[in-house]
Specification:
The protein is α/β, with parallel strands linked by helices and 350 residues long. It contains 14 helices and twelve strands. Strands 1, 2, 3, 4, 5, 6, 7, 8, 9, 10, 11 and 12 form a twelve-stranded mixed beta sheet that branches. α3 runs parallel beside α14 and α13 packs across α14. The longest helix is centred in the last third of the chain and has 29 residues. The chain starts with 8 loop residues before the first strand and ends with a helix. The protein binds pseudouridine-5'-monophosphate and manganese (II) ion.
Length: 350
């Protein structure tokens, strides 16, 4: 299904803003940006379409205008029609996962791009949307100290003044290092009605946050202060999954461990203790002979931007419907909180 053209006009910035979003922005109304990777790469059809529509409905019910962002035929779109949303949902992985680094290429080649958190933040800021709701953001991957696989979501948060509402990050990632990296990037991290940074499927991660917020108004004041001071950096509001939807943390965690093993990047990260010495000698020799040869010891050698979708898929398969349903519930809850924050912020500006 190829994306249809819209009634949105492409403005001077090369971005097509839907009439509804444009009108809301012009009157200083509440607008909430939404990403599209979650639709194309995060959930199966037709659940992805149903969820995307329900999330937009939650935003509307709470007084804000939803602005789902994607690149259609090379044109970045902010605010999609129902038909366009459907096209995204049906096309799924045919839409390229588009982070900041991929934007120029997808646009130049007239391609279709599903925007990740970094790319969605970029476009939201470009058109003046300060609030963005998603499920989970990317982070520092486990073994990130070796692979340097750190999501561009984190650097984007460091340099783009958009507030991202998420349920924290999944424990497929290294949560303590993700928080360290956000600190280095100067990102304000606040947890909503809790003192702990949530781990997506569970409310707990063992990591405390430097800032706790208890209402949308409190969040709006922080966003307002950030703007007034021209800090230039982003804000992450971490909202724990609603208690009634928290699937069994242990079951999901063990599924995550299994998936992690399958995606294992380094074949010698955990060698058997007894053969450690011999193994190291073998590896060094092998690497000297041929790097490719090592591949046969790697389980699947999933690397780069394929890791997150792979891990998310495996977790889904291993946990069955429970993780998908929990995922949908938490995104809708984030949409509710995000819309209320957008309304509170718009009230502060009036
Ligand atoms: N985490 C989730 N669900 C998602 C993603 C992350 O729980 O759908 C998506 C988001 O679009 C996020 C991206 O911005 O994956 C991060 O990918 P990477 O790790 O390759 O930067
Ligand atoms: Mn990565």
């Amino acid at each position: 299904m190829s994306p249809s053209s819209s009634s949105s006009s492409t403005g001077p910035m090369g971005v097509a803003v839907s009439p509804e979003v444009e009108a809301a922005l012009a009157r200083g109304g509440a607008v909430v940006a939404l990403e599209s990777t979650i639709i194309c790469h995060g959930m199966p059809y037709p659940k992805n379409l149903q969820t995307a529509m329900e999330v937009e409905a939650v935003v509307r019910e709470n007084g804000a205008v939803p602005a789902t962002i994607a690149i259609l035929n090379g044109v970045p779109h902010v605010g999609l029609s129902g038909e366009q949303l459907k096209s995204l949902a049906v096309s799924g992985r045919q839409f390229q996962k588009t982070a900041r680094r991929d934007i120029a290429h997808v646009v130049a080649s007239g391609g279709n791009g599903a925007t990740t958190v970094s790319a969605t933040m970029f476009f939201a800021h470009k058109v003046g949307i300060p609030i963005f709701v998603t499920g989970g953001i990317g982070g520092v991957h486990r073994n990130g100290e070796q692979t340097m696989d750190i999501s561009s979501d984190l650097t984007e948060l460091g340099k783009t003044p958009v507030t991202v509402i998420s349920a924290g990050v999944k424990s497929i990632l290294d949560i303590p290092r993700t928080l360290e990296y956000l600190e280095t990037q100067g990102v304000t991290v606040a947890a909503y009605k809790t003192n702990e940074f949530p781990a997506f499927f569970t409310e707990v991660s063992g990591c405390k946050v430097p800032c706790r917020v208890d209402s949308p108004e409190e969040c709006a004041k922080i966003i307002y202060a950030n703007k007034n001071l021209h800090l230039g950096s982003g804000i992450l509001i971490a909202v724990p999954i609603p208690k009634e939807h928290a699937a069994s943390g242990n079951a999901i965690e063990s599924a995550i461990q299994k998936a992690l093993k399958e995606a294992e990047y380094c074949p010698y990260s955990q060698p058997p203790a007894l053969s450690l010495y011999l193994f190291c000698v073998f590896v060094i020799l092998t690497e000297m002979i041929s790097n490719d040869f090592l591949c046969c010891f790697r389980d699947k050698n999933i690397i780069g931007n394929a890791i997150t979708p792979f891990m998310l898929d495996r977790v889904k398969v291993l946990t069955g419907r429970s993780s998908l349903e929990a995922n949908i519930a938490l995104v809708k809850n984030n949409a509710l909180v995000g819309a209320k924050i957008a309304v509170a912020l718009s009230d502060l500006h009036q």
